[in-house]
Amino acid sequence: MSKRLGVTVSRQIMDSQKLHPEATGELSGLLNELIVAGKIISAEVNMAGLADILGQSGKVNIQGETVQKLDDFANATIKRRMEQCGYICVMASEEEEEIIPVLDGYEGKYTLAFDPLDGSSNIDVNVSIGTIFSVHRKLSDGVKGTEADLLQKGSLQVAAGYIIYGSSTMLVYTTGEGVHGFTLDPSVGEFFLSHPDIRIPAHSKYYSVNEAYTNYWFDSTRKYVDYLKEIDSETGRPYSLRYIGSLVADFHRNLITGGIFLYPRDRKNTTKPEGKLRLLYEAAPMALLVKEAGGVAITDDGRDILEIVPESLHQRVPLIIGSREDVETAKKFYLS
Ligand code: AHM
Ligand code: MG
User: Is 238 within a domain?
Assistant: First the structure.
C-alpha cells in the first residue's frame, strides 16, 4: 500500500495522546506547531541554492523580501511560531545567548530547546542538515518560564526529535513510546509514517568521528578507533568510517543502519578540553531518541548523557552515541 494512504504524523500524535487519558492535548498541539515550522524551513532549505543566487544579486528574494541566512531564518521561524502557540512558557535556541520568552498571555506548561539548523556549515554544499528539538515540562511556579525550567536533565524530556532536510525531509521523534519516522510528501505538505518503531541494530560495522583530529585525541579515543580498524573477521572489523560532519545526518544514518558516533573531548581547546556538541540542543535529544530505539548515549567518562543536569544553556558535552554493543565496547576503552 502506498505510504500516502497510511498514517499521517498528526494522526499518530493524536493516537499516542489517547494512550494518556490525563493528556490535555497541549503536547500534541506543541508538536504540530513545530512540524509546521519544520515544513516552512524545509521549503526554504530546498530553495537554498536559488536563494543564494538571488541573495548575491541584491539580497532580495523573488517575493521582494530580504534574503536571510538560512540558520537565522530557521531560528526566527521557530521562535515566531512557538512564542504564540500557547503551549510553551520559555525557549532556548543554540543560536541565542539568553532564554527566549514567549508572548505575554500565551504561556503554556512546556519548555522548548532547539538547534534551528544543525550542521548549517553544510548548506552550501547540499549536505543534509536538520532541526533538533527537546521538550520538558515546566517546573517553576508562576506563569513565566525561567532558565531553571530549561536546565533539566535529558531523562525528563517529554518529547525529543529532529527534522532532517536530506534527499527527502523526514521527522523522527519520540514521546517515550518508541521512535517513529515520517517522510514529508512536499506535493501535499504532509508527513506520512515511513519508519514505524525504529530500532537501532545492537551491533554495527560503522563509526563516525572526525578523524582529522587524531593528533588532538586523548589515548582512549585513539586506542578505540585503532581497535575498530584492526582486521578481525570474527568481530566484523575493520569497521567502515562514515562521517558527514552534520550531527543529524550522521545520527540518522547510524540510527537506521547501526553505528557509533563519537565527538569526544580532545586537546583542540587547550584551556578546557571538552566536546563540541551542546547538551541541551544536541546530545540530550539524540540520547533520548537512541535510548528509545534500543541504543545508548554516554560521555567519554562513562556517564549517561540523559542523567546529566545542565549547568548552563550552552554547556558542551563529550558524546558517544549509537548501537548498544558498540557503545559498550567503546566504554571499556574509555574507562580502562
Ligand atoms: P553547529 O551546531 O554549529 O552546526 O555545529 C555542530 C556540528 C554537528 O552537526 C557536527 O556533528 C559537528 O558540528 C561537526 O564538527 P567538526 O567539524 O568539528 O567535525
Ligand atoms: Mg548544532
Answer: yes
Is residue 86 in some structural domain?
Answer: yes
* Average pLDDT value for residue range 187-215: 97
Tell me the pLDDT band of 123, cut-offs 50, 70 and 90: confident
Domain final position from 195, 227, 243? 195
Q: Is the whole model's pTM more than 0.90, yes or no?
A: yes
Name, in order, each residue with C-beta under 8 angstroms of 5's C-beta and a sequence gap of 6 or more: none
With a 6 Å cutoff on the Cβ, whether 247 touches ligand 1 is: yes
| Residue span of the structural domain in which 80 resides | 3-195
Name the phi and psi angles at 226, rounded to 5.
Answer: -60, -40
Cis check for the bond before 238: say yes or no (omega within 30 of 0): yes
Q: Which residue minimizes the CA distance to atom 4 of ligand 1?
A: 119
| Residues 141 and 171 occupy one common structural domain | yes
Q: Is 331 in the pocket of ligand 1 (CB under 6 A)?
A: no
Count of domains for the chain: 2
Q: Which atom of ligand 1 is nearest to the CA of 71?
A: 4
Residue with the bigger pLDDT between 166 and 60: it is 166
Question: 185 burial class (0-12, 13-18, 19+ CB within 10 angstroms)?
Answer: middle
